[in-house]
Amino acid sequence: MGLFGGSWGSTLALLVAIRQPESAIGLILRGIFLAREQDYTWYLEASGGAAQLFPEYHQDFLAPIKRRPSNVSIVDAYYQIFNSNNEVQKMAAIKAWCLWEARISRLHCQFDEVQLVSDLHRAISLALLECHYIKHQCFISEDYILQNVDKIQHLPVTIIHGRYDCVCKIEAAYSLSQRWQNSQLNIIPESGHSASEKLITQALCAASKSMSAFWLEQQ
């Protein structure tokens, strides 16, 4: 099987390949997320890269949990709200979580906040699932993917990552490519995290055509 995934999807694709290497024939990955502690910090914490680049947006992100004790992490505070019975507080937190991600997902943000309210079902599932998995370290041990990448060295992979991705830091893509001899890293200029950004979309289409031709040759 061929594996294609972006962001959290790249994590899942890598885990499937690592655990079933005999079933995979290649991967196309975009916006690498390795589910390490440093990746959670980058994305969520005030000391992380995203907050340093977008401090005003991060303050909005912290607004629903501004009364949290100093010893409670951001993800733990959100997790408590998401699992509470206070529906008003919960919906405010869901919108804040999704707004944070939407604002930092593209190099040139064109996000309409009205869209978030109109697509509430998607916002609920996105916020609750992301928080649940991050709260539990995505159910894998620290640095699991890089420690097990040797199991899939034989598989071809195209790694596509926006140069200015603020959701998933580019170091993750670079570190993965350095450990994976049969990899091709394509850093996309003038692009952030979103697969819908023009240059990233073009790179994904090109990688799909190239990988398809490669697979046909192997048959």
UniProtKB/TrEMBL annotation:
SUPFAM superfamilies per record: alpha/beta-Hydrolases
InterPro entries: AB_hydrolase_1, AB_hydrolase_fold, Pro_iminopeptidase
Superkingdom of the organism of origin: Bacteria
Domain AB hydrolase-1: 3-196
Gene Ontology molecular function terms on file: aminopeptidase activity
GO biological process, one term: proteolysis
Transmembrane segments: none
GO cellular component, one term: cytoplasm
Record-linked Gene3D superfamilies: alpha/beta hydrolase
Protein name: Proline iminopeptidase
